[in-house]
C-alpha cells in the first residue's frame, strides 16, 4: 500500500445556474493573455450540447484517454510510444482552432472615434488571429441554454450513443449545466502522452501541471487528454492547463472558480488513495465496473492502518486530519452521491459530480404533480429514462444503476427535508428506502444545501515551514541593486526567468500589502530583521537622527520628505519616511 | 596547408570553427537562459490540411538526407571499399537514395513555405528570425539538391566524387589539422552548399531549429506517468546559476 493524497473537487450540479462566473473569473486570473484567447481552463457547458471543444467526448474521433487491450493492458488510445514518435512531425488528432472557436474582439475604438453621422457607429468583430473582419460562427458556449441546439444537438456524442427512442422524445427537452475543469486524474493520459516528460503529477497533492521550461510543444498532451483540458498556447508554443489554482491551495484558499461560484456548488478536499492499485483499477475489463474500481482505490482516512501507512509515506498529520474532514470523501464514500465524469476514459478523474435531480423534478412539476413528493419522485426517476440514460452516459459509462441510486438519495433528501420544513418528523422510511438513516440524510442536507464555506473547502496548507523560512532569510537581500542582486537579471527585470509562484511570495506580498507602512515594523519600537526586505530604514533600526531645522536651503538630507519641493510638510512622523534614496 | 589562399583559409578553416563555436556556445547559452523559448512553436492549431503533408515529408526527407550526409562525410572511402562496396555501386545508391530524399524534403519545404505565406494566422505568427532562418534553410537545401543534380546526375558517369575532396576536408576539421586546399577544386555548387550550411548552423541556436536538439528520445524508456515533488519544482526565488541547491533534510 502506497498512500498518496489527492486534492479533488466535487460539483453539485443541481445548484448550477449556468451563470459562467467561474469561467469568467478563471479567465481573468489565468488565461487573459495573447495566445490563450480561446482557452477556458474552466468552462460551463449546457447539456445536451456539443461541449467545448466541439464533440470532444467522441473519442472515436479524438482518440483521447486510455483503452484496454485484449491482453488486459492499458494503452493510450491515440497510440503507444512508437506511434507517438512516428507521428511527432504532425499530430493527426489535434483539434484545430476552429474546433474550439476563432477568438475575436470588437472594434470598440470605432464607437468613440468615428465622426458624427447619420448612422450609429458599430463595433465590428475582428479576428484575434488575423485581425480581419470575421463572422462569428461558434464559441466556447455557443449552444448555451440550448440556443440553436435544434441544429447541433444531434451531434452530442452522448446522445448519439443512446438508444433510438431518444430522438423522438427529445422534444420534451431537458437541460442542465456541466461546469468543467481539468480532472487532475489519478492515471493522467496527458502526462503519459508527453514525449518531453514536461507534464507531471505533484507527489504532495496530485495536481497535474506542465513544466513550462521543459515543454517543447509536441502537442501530444492535447490529444491525450480525453476531456480536452490541456491547451496549446499558440503564442508561446507551450501547453497550458488548469493548475487547480495551486498557489491559492497552498495557502489554504479555494480555487478561483470555487471561491467565486455563485451557487456555492463546488467542494474541495483531500482524498487518500493507494497508488499501487491505480493501474489495475484503470484496466478493469467491464466499463461499468470502472466506477466501483476507482472507489476501491480510495483509502478510508479514518482507518488506523491507513493513517499509519500515510505517516510512513511522510504525509503530514494536518493533511491526514484534513482528509478525515474532507467533504469529497463524505460525498464519494459516505453518502455515495458523487460520480466521476466519463470513467470509461480510464484516467480515473478526480473532479466528481453530483448528478442533477432537477430535470426529473422539472418534468414532474410541469406535468402538474408535486415535484417534492417522495413517492412521485421515486416513480418518476425510474420512469424518465431519457435524463437517466443521458446522465449515465456522462457519469457511469452508460450504467443507469448508480445514477438512479444517487437520484433516489437526492429525492429522499428533498422530500424528507420538506417534511421537516413543514414541522413534521423526518420520515425515516424515506431514508431507509435509499439505504441511509435520517440523520445521515440530514447531515448530507447540511453539506449540500447549507454548504458552509468551511464545510465546502477543507484545504490543508502546503508544508514549507523549515526550508522555506530559511530561504526567506536568504532572500531578504535580494532586491534590485542590493547585495543579493536577485531582483533582476543583467537585462532588467523583464528578462531572464520569472519569479516562481509560491506560498512564500504570496505571504511576503500579502504582508507587505497589509502592513500599515511598507517599511516600518508592525510593532512600534521593534524591528523584525527577518521581514526587512532591505529597502529603506525601518523606524527603530537606527538611533533617531539629529533634530533638523526645517526648510534649511541646501542643508537637509536628500531623502527627507519634509525638504522635498512640494513635499507634505504635515506628513505624519511614521509615514514612509524611511524611503531614503541615498540608502539604495 | 599548402597552396591555400587567404580566402580559402577564411572560408574553409575559420568559418567552420567559428560556426562550431557559435553553435555549441550559442546552444548552451540559449538553453540556460531561454528554456521557455525552446520550443517548436507549432502552428498546427491554425492550419492542419497542408501541414499534414508538408511537415512529415520535410522532416522524414531531411532525416534521410542527414543519414546520407553521415555516410558520405564521416565514413572514409577506404572503409566502404574495404567491405567491398565499389565506387559505382556507392554512387548509384547515394545518388538514387539521396535524390529521392531530396525530392521529398524539397517538396515538403515548398508546401511548408507556401503554407506559411498563404495562411493568414501562420504568416502573422512568423517572426523576423523565422524568415531569416527560412532563407538560410532553403539556401542550404536547394543548393545541396542542385549540387546533386548538376554534378551527379547531369554530369553522367560516376559523377563528382566528393569523397576525395569534401569528405577528407570535413574530417580534417575534426582532427584539428584542417586542409582547406582540398576544397579549392570543388564545384561551385558544392562550395555554395557547404558555406550556406555553415551559416545555417551558426544561426541555429537562435532560431526555432533548436527543437531538433530536444528530440524526445527518452520517451520510450520512461514510465508513463511522471511524478514530481513540490519541493524541487517550487522555490520562492528564481533559481540562479552558481549555487547548487543544498539537500535539505525535512
Automatic annotation (TrEMBL), chain A:
It is found in: Cell envelope. GO terms for molecular function: oxidoreductase activity. Keywords: 4Fe-4S, Electron transport, Iron, Iron-sulfur, Metal-binding, Oxidoreductase, Repeat, Transport. Its EC number is 1.7.99.4. Residues 512-584 are annotated as: Disordered. Residues 7-35, 173-205, 206-235 form the 4Fe-4S ferredoxin-type domain. The keyword 4Fe-4S applies. This is Nitrate reductase subunit beta. It comes from Isoptericola luteus.
TrEMBL record, chain B:
It is a multi-pass membrane protein. Residues 9-230 form the NarG-like domain. Gene3D superfamilies: Transmembrane di-heme cytochromes, Chain C. It comes from Isoptericola luteus. Its EC number is 1.7.99.4. This is Respiratory nitrate reductase subunit gamma. The chain crosses the membrane at residues 6-29, 50-76, 88-114, 134-160, 180-204. InterPro entries: Heme-iron_electron_transfer (IPR051936), NarG-like_domain (IPR023234), NarG-like_sf (IPR036197), Nitrate_red_gam (IPR003816). Keywords: Cell membrane, Electron transport, Heme, Iron, Membrane, Metal-binding, Nitrate assimilation, Oxidoreductase, Transmembrane, Transmembrane helix, Transport. The gene is narI. One of its GO terms (molecular function) is oxidoreductase activity.
Amino acid at each position: 500500500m502506497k498512500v498518496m493524497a489527492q486534492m479533488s473537487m466535487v460539483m453539485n450540479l443541481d445548484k448550477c445556474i449556468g451563470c459562467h462566473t467561474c469561467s469568467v473569473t478563471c479567465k481573468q486570473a489565468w488565461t487573459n493573455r495573447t495566445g490563450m484567447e480561446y482557452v477556458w481552463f474552466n468552462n460551463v457547458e449546457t447539456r445536451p450540447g456539443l461541449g467545448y471543444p466541439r464533440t470532444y467526448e467522441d473519442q472515436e474521433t479524438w482518440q483521447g484517454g486510455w483503452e484496454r487491450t485484449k491482453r488486459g493492458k492499458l494503452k493510450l488510445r491515440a497510440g503507444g510510444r512508437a506511434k507517438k514518435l512516428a507521428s511527432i512531425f504532425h499530430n493527426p488528432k489535434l483539434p484545430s482552432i476552429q474546433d474550439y472557436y476563432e477568438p475575436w474582439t470588437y472594434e470598440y475604438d470605432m464607437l468613440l472615434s468615428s465622426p458624427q453621422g447619420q448612422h450609429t457607429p458599430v463595433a465590428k468583430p475582428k479576428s484575434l488571429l488575423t485581425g480581419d473582419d470575421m463572422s462569428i460562427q461558434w464559441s466556447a458556449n455557443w449552444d448555451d441554454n440550448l440556443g440553436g441546439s435544434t441544429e447541433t444537438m444531434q451531434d452530442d456524442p452522448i446522445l448519439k450513443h443512446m438508444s433510438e427512442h431518444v430522438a423522438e422524445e427529445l422534444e420534451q427537452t431537458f437541460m442542465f449545466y456541466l461546469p468543467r475543469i481539468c480532472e487532475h486524474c489519478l492515471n493522467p493520459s496527458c502526462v503519459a502522452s508527453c514525449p518531453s516528460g514536461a507534464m507531471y503529477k505533484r507527489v504532495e497533492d496530485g495536481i497535474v501541471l506542465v513544466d513550462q521550461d521543459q515543454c517543447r510543444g509536441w502537442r501530444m498532451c492535447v490529444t491525450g487528454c480525453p476531456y480536452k483540458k490541456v491547451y496549446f498556447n499558440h503564442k508561446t508554443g507551450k501547453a497550458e492547463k488548469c493548475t487547480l489554482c495551486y498557489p491559492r491551495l497552498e495557502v489554504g484558499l479555494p480555487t478561483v472558480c470555487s471561491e467565486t461560484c455563485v451557487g456555492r456548488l463546488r467542494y474541495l478536499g483531500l482524498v487518500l488513495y493507494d497508488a499501487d492499485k491505480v493501474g489495475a483499477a484503470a484496466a478493469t475489463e467491464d466499463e461499468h465496473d470502472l466506477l466501483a474500481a476507482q472507489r476501491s482505490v480510495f483509502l478510508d482516512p479514518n482507518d488506523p492502518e491507513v493513517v499509519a501507512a500515510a505517516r510512513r509515506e511522510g504525509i503530514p498529520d494536518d493533511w491526514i486530519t484534513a482528509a478525515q474532514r474532507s467533504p469529497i470523501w463524505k460525498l464519494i464514500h459516505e453518502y455515495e452521491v458523487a460520480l466521476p465524469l466519463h470513467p470509461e476514459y480510464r484516467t480515473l478523474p478526480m473532479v466528481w459530480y453530483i448528478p442533477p435531480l432537477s430535470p426529473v423534478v422539472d418534468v414532474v412539476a410541469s406535468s402538474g404533480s408535486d415535484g417534492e413528493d417522495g413517492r412521485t419522485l421515486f416513480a418518476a426517476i425510474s420512469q424518465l429514462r431519457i435524463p437517466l440514460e443521458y446522465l449515465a452516459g456522462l457519469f457511469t459509462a452508460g450504467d443507469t444503476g448508480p445514477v438512479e441510486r444517487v437520484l433516489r438519495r437526492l429525492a429522499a433528501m428533498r422530500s424528507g427535508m420538506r417534511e421537516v420544513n413543514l414541522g413534521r418528523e423526518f420520515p425515516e422510511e424515506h431514508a431507509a428506502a435509499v439505504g441511509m438513516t435520517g440523520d445521515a440524510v440530514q447531515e448530507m442536507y447540511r453539506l449540500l444545501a447549507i454548504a458552509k464555506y468551511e464545510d465546502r473547502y477543507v484545504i490543508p496548507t502546503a508544508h514549507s515551514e523549515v526550508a522555506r523560512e530559511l530561504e526567506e532569510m536568504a532572500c531578504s537581500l535580494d532586491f534590485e541593486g542590493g547585495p543579493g542582486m536577485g531582483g533582476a537579471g543583467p537585462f532588467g527585470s523583464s528578462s531572464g526567468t520569472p519569479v516562481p509562484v509560491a506560498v512564500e511570495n504570496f505571504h511576503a506580498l500579502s504582508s507587505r500589502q497589509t502592513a500599515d507602512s511598507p517599511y516600518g515594523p508592525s510593532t512600534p519600537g521593534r524591528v523584525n530583521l527577518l521581514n526587512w526586505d532591505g529597502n529603506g530604514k525601518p523606524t527603530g533600526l537606527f538611533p533617531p537622527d539629529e533634530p533638523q531645522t526645517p526648510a534649511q536651503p541646501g542643508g537637509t538630507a536628500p531623502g527627507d520628505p519634509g525638504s522635498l519641493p512640494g513635499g507634505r510638510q504635515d506628513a505624519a512622523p511614521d509615514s514612509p519616511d524611511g524611503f531614503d534614496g541615498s540608502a539604495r | 596547408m599548402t597552396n591555400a589562399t587567404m580566402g580559402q583559409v577564411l572560408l574553409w578553416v575559420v568559418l567552420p570553427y567559428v560556426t562550431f563555436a557559435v553553435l555549441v556556445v550559442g546552444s548552451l547559452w540559449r538553453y540556460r537562459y531561454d528554456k521557455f523559448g525552446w520550443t517548436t512553436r507549432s502552428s498546427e492549431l491554425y492550419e492542419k490540411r497542408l501541414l499534414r503533408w508538408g511537415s512529415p515529408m520535410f522532416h522524414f526527407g531531411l532525416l534521410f538526407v542527414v543519414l546520407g550526409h553521415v555516410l558520405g562525410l564521416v565514413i572514409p572511402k577506404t572503409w566502404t571499399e574495404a567491405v567491398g562496396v565499389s565506387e559505382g555501386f556507392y554512387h548509384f545508391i547515394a545518388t538514387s537514395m539521396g535524390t529521392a530524399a531530396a525530392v521529398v524534403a524539397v517538396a515538403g519545404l515548398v508546401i511548408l513555405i507556401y503554407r506559411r505565406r498563404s495562411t493568414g494566422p501562420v504568416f502573422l505568427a512568423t517572426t523576423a528570425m523565422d524568415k531569416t532562418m527560412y532563407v538560410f534553410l532553403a539556401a542550404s537545401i536547394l543548393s545541396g539538391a542542385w549540387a546533386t543534380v548538376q554534378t551527379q546526375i547531369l554530369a553522367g558517369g560516376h559523377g563528382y566524387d566528393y569523397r576525395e575532396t569534401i569528405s577528407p576536408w570535413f574530417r580534417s576539421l575534426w582532427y584539428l589539422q584542417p586542409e582547406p586546399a582540398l576544397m579549392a577544386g570543388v564545384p561551385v555548387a558544392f562550395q555554395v552548399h557547404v558555406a550556406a550550411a555553415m551559416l545555417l548552423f551558426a544561426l541555429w541556436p537562435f532560431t526555432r531549429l533548436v527543437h531538433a536538439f530536444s528530440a524526445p528520445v527518452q520517451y520510450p524508456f520512461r514510465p508513463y506517468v511522471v511524478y514530481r515533488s513540490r519541493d524541487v519544482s517550487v522555490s520562492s526565488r528564481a533559481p540562479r546559476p552558481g549555487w547548487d541547491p543544498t539537500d535539505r533534510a525535512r
